[in-house]
Amino acid sequence: MPFSSCDDHADGTSSTSAQRDRTGGESAAFVAPRRGCRAVLLTAHGRGALATIVVEGPGACAALRTCFRPATPQPDVELPRDRILFGHWQLNDTPGSASAGDGEELVVCQLASDRLEIHCHGGRAVVAQVLASLQRAGCTIVSSARWLLSRESDRLRAEAQLALGQAGTLRVAGVLLDQHRGALSQAVARIHQALRAGETDTAATLLRTLLGWAPVGLHLTRPWRIVIVGRANVGKSSLLNAVLGYSRALVHPTPGTTRDVLTASTAIDGWPVEFADTAGSRAGAGELERAGVQRAAEHATRADLILLVSDLSAPWTTDDQHLLARATDLPLVVHNKSDLVDRPPSSRPDGIVTCAKTAAGVPQLLAAISERLVPATPSSGTPMPFRQTHVRHLRRALQALTSGHRDQAIQSLRALSENRMNDHGSLPDGHAGAMR
Ligand SMILES: Nc1nc2c(ncn2[C@@H]2O[C@H](COP(=O)(O)OP(=O)(O)OP(=O)(O)O)[C@@H](O)[C@H]2O)c(=O)[nH]1
Ligand SMILES: [Mg+2]
Fold first, then answer.
1. CB of 203 within 8 A of CB of 187?
2. DSSP characters for 16-30?
3. CATH class of 151-213+380-424
4. Which numbered ligand comes closest to the C-alpha of 235?
5. Which of 237, 238, 239, 258 best tests ligand 1's pocket when mutated (most atoms within 8 Å of CB)?
6. Candidate CATH numbers 3.40.50.300, 2.40.50.320, 3.90.550.10, 3.30.530.20; the one for domain 224-373
7. Is the CB of 252 within 6 Å of ligand 1?
8. Strands (E), 57-177
9. Are 353 and 338 in contact (CB under 8 A)?
10. Domain extents for the chain?
């Protein structure tokens, strides 16, 4: 984004000198930084239909007025309260610049004397430029993470609100909403209470239950990765297409068709997943094909689930057996091309029988995948850790508890709920993009 965050200034002021406003309103040229006035993008980062920006603090209205012209002129600096005003936003007020005079139509609503909301198109460029002009008008651009944490005393709830911006499906959004409503905070408080009361067994049980949901919780903002492997020509790409319901991957009778890793996102039972189709292994493969197979193997090491596809009309070979043995966790075996055999041979490992050509067996395959990824369905309001930091602190607490260090366990839980950020105004672990 072309604007720079001024969060880190000790006095909370912006370092960017404003340029002259050519729209006839308050001049933004050399505007003194408005101490305490801040602007924050509330909607998720990235492209969207709409974006919402909050401007708040002393001088919020004056800052907004340097760029915004209501369609119906308003006499006062302050705009009428709680009224949605349509108008023009001067996007670039740098005299002589190629885009000087560019503008954007948007709506503004003044909610309090020092708090306004701007609703504009959600494209990255528009959002970046509106924020940049607010910065030129003296506002400090604050990350949504910093803003939320400064308003919300419950850190875990604030984090859930931020994570909601990354929810890929309604189902994961529902689980995150539960955490935002306090499910995780209350569970942590209960453990705390048990620890303080000396009920260490109860605390350990509660910790284990909470940690048991970590494999689901950690995927609420990141899809499960499913990697499709198998010998060449067994129907891996056909199966991917059958699962997706559209022709994503190239399919051909010639073995060695897929060379590179090809990914596609979808949802199974409302859980977000990313499939990766890979190059099939076979004897006599050339250098390029072997490089593809190597890449497939690397990808498989990062998988949450491996689908090992085999051809039911061909014998189960040592290559299939090798692929089965190499997978770190037990892969889900798929016996494809069922239409080519009258009766599935018995001398093969258990698996799902499919015909990628007709999509027969695909519903069963999806059910099996869902069962593997989320073995127990969380009921409404189930607390679950959804960030690596949560899992780390909970594990530490459990470890301390099982080694008889109750105080350390309490400390780890405190660290989990503490409302603290690092010096850069972001939360101190992964998901950096979302938390920025
Ligand atoms: N009869 C039948 N043919 C299938 C089935 N699935 C795939 N095929 C055919 O098998 C051939 C290979 O299919 P692909 O999906 O390209 O196989 P692949 O495993 O991705 O092959 P590589 O990319 O070369 O590793 C194509 O001619 C498909 O039409 C099936 O269930 N039944
Ligand atoms: Mg293929």
1. no
2. PPPPPP-SSSS--TT
3. mainly alpha
4. 1
5. 238
6. 3.40.50.300
7. yes
8. 68-70, 84-90, 103-112, 115-121, 140-141
9. yes
10. 38-142, 151-213+380-424, 224-373
Q: Which residues surround ligand 2, an ion (CB under 5 A)?
A: 236-237, 257-258
Residue with the nearest Cα to atom 9 of ligand 1? 235
CA gap 138, 315 in Å, rounded: 72
204 pLDDT band (50/70/90 cuts)?
Answer: very high
pLDDT at 12: 33
Q: Is the CB of 337 within 6 Å of ligand 1?
A: yes
CA of 353 to the centre of ligand 1 (A): 15
**Strand partners for 84:** 109
Ligand 1 pocket, residue 187 CB under 6 Å: no
- What is the Å distance from ligand 1's center to 369 Cα? 21
Tokens, residue 309: 């596809």
Q: Closest residue (by CA) to atom 24 of ligand 1?
A: 256
For 166-190, write each residue's pLDDT tens digit. 899 999 999 999 999 999 999 999 9
Give the C-alpha separation, 40 to 34, whole Å. 15
The percent of residues above 70 in pLDDT, for the chain, comes to: 86
CA 126 distance to own-chain centroid: 22
Gap from CA of 24 to ligand 1 centroid (Å): 67
The overall pTM is greater than 0.85: no
Give per-residue burial for 246-279: e unless 16+ CB within 10 Å, then b.
eebbebeeebbbbbebbbbebebeebbbbbbbbb
38-142: CATH number: 3.30.1360.120
Ligand 2 center from residue 276 Cα (angstroms): 11
Ligand 1 atom index nearest CA of 340: 1
- Using the predicted structure, report yes or no on whether residue 422 has a pLDDT greater than 60: no
